[in-house]
Amino acid sequence: MHKVAAALAALVTAVVAGLVAIPLVIGGDSPPTAAASVCATGDSDAILATIRDRESGGDYHEASHARAAGYPTGSGNPTGAYQFLYATWAGYGGYREAYLAPAAVQDARARHDVITILATFGTVDWVPIVWYIGAGGARDVRAGKIGLDDVPNPAYNTISIGGYQARWLDAYQRITSSGDPTTTTTADAANVTTLPTAPGVATTTTIDATSTCAAAAIVDGDALPLPRTILDANPERLAAPHHDYPAIDLPASVGTPVYAIHAGVVTHITSYHDNCYTDTATCGDLCGVGISITDPDGTTWIYCHASQLDLTVGAAITAGQQIMLSGNSGHSSGPHLHVGIRVGGVDHCPQPLLTALYKTGRAVPANELPASGCTYTAATSS
To answer: Is residue 236 part of a domain?
Structure first.
């Protein structure tokens, strides 16, 4: 191991000893696939508070590097409490740049990214590295291609990767040791904005402390298919029509954990990793990387377009179990999760089930779902 990396690994272990559930080792094992392991790697509220502290001092409206302000695009144009780069933010929640989004939307996006980082890298010490140089750069660090003493994009940065990580972990220790890691700074409190929501959805300015693991929360045998924080940013999407047959497409960045809505047994797996959106004729499988789970009543639950799936046919699945990571494989116009529900061999509309599950915690039984009325054709003609 690089001697700087070795020294920092020792620092990391000392700094966060007792704060996380597993040892912190730079260059660790393969990423965990179980949802429980993601939830056990750190306090998500403390992680978010640390990112805000280090990136902006908790200023959700920080816009000194905004494109709208004419700042050079070579900087990446970071804005908002978490200093999301323009390209990384990518219009999340319908807001052009992060600083334009309400606090709860920025929090939801940041929590989603933290979940993905922990699912991919396994331990909290990787969060500052990914936040500073991106997931691709972090993988290069893990592979030894980049040293922790390197300074990324030196035209705009002066601190090394390892230096940023050490300062971040020091702040994380301070916040977690305060006894109230969810407490906001003065800047946080001054800049919190209420998140507009769809009719019938409770308005909130905070994210539930348990929401990192919310998808694994089971009520009456069902669970949301994506982390609730993703759905919180645009709950109306749960009622959106599908293109030409009953199903639903839910936007989700590559690597987002996907959870089984309902328990059952894996009955079919597809493994086409390429994207064939522009070349359907040669498409190996429209679903891409996907899985079908059949429940005891014979209903089949279909999930498509994954980037990673490690299950096998015959595996028993529980509701809320992480089954794959979302992606852009198969016939997909962009990263998203496709969900289908097939009752008696007929496609039914998932929208009422997911909307009820999101709003009330209780899903509509699959056999009571409509088999029409949830496509663009139906929405246009009605």
So the answer is: yes
Report yes or no on 200 lying in a domain: no
Q: How many CB atoms lie within 10 A of CB 379?
A: 12
Chain centroid to Cα 80, Å, comes to: 18
The residue-averaged pLDDT of 360-377 equals 90
Q: Does one domain contain both 186 and 57?
A: yes
Q: What is the mean pLDDT of residues 238-260?
A: 91
- Together in a domain, 282 and 326: yes
What are the pLDDT digits (tens) for 4-30? 333 333 333 333 333 222 222 223 333
pLDDT recorded at residue 72: 86
> Residue 219 has what pLDDT?
56
pLDDT band at 37 (very low <50, low <70, confident <90, very high): very low
Question: What pTM was computed for the model?
Answer: 0.52
62-77: pLDDT as tens digits: 999 888 888 888 778 8
